[in-house]
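Extended Data, panel c. Modelled sequence:
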Amino acid sequence: MTRSRRTLVVKWVLLVLIAFSLVLPLAWMALSGFKRDSDVLKSPFSLLPEVWQWQNYTAMFHDSPYMTAVGLTMLGALIFTGLSLVVNSMAAYVFARLDFGLKRYFWVFCIMPMFVPGMSILITSFVVVSKLHMLNTLAVLIVPGVAAAGQMFFMRQFFLAMPIAVEDAARIDGCSRWTIFLRIFVPNSTAVFVVVGITSYMAYWNAYVWPILTISNPTLQQIMPVLANFVDDRGPQYGQLMAASTLAALPTIVLLLVFQRYIVAGVRLSGIK
C-alpha cells in the first residue's frame, strides 16, 4: 500500500470514528424514547430497547403543556431570527461601507460585548428588563439579544470582501444606499444570512438560564426549562423524557441538514480577514 493510500485510509477511519461519536448520543436518545422507564438507565448499556414503547412519543404529541412550550419557542425563535438578520445585517453594512464621524469608536463599542461573558451581566440585565416591565412577556426573550456583536462582526467581514466596483457602478446608476443593500448585498449574501439565521435560531431555542430567570408564567414556558424540569414535574418518566428531548432536537437537526451547504460556504467565504 502506498503512502498516499495509507493516508487516505487513516483520514477515512478518523472521519468515521468522529461521525460515530457524534451520532451515537443522538441515536441513544432517540431509541431511549422507545424504552420503558426502567430500561433507559439500565446497566449494562443497551442501545436497542427490549420492548418498544411507541406510546412515549405519541404521549408527547398529546401533552398540552409540552406542545404549547414547543409552539411558543418555535414562534419566538422565528421572530428572534428574523429580527437578528435585519438588525445585524444593516449594522454590518453601515460599518463595512459607510464613513461617518467616530466610526472606529462606535465599532469598538458595538463589538465590546464579544469579550464580556454573558453571565457576568445577567443580574444587571434582569434589573433593566424588570424596570421596563418586560418580565413574563415574549419580548423579554427576544429583544435583549437581537443585536449580537459576534453576528455583526461576522457579517461585516463578508461585506468588506464584496467588490467595491459593483457598489460604485450601482451608485453611478443612481441607486441609493438602501437600494444597494437590498438588491446587491442581500442577494449575494445567502450563505452568510443562513449561518447567522441558524445561529440565532439555535441560541434562542437552546436558551435556558434567561428564560427561567425572566419567565414565571407557566403558559409562557420555553422548551428547555420544560425539559429540565420534566422529571421533577412528572416523576421518573425517563422514556417520555427521551422522547420529548428527541422531538425538541428535530427542528435544529433538520435545519442543519437542509442548509449544511450554505453553512460550509458561509464559514469558508467569511473567513476572518
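The chain has one domain: 63-269. This feature is highlighted in the accompanying rendering.
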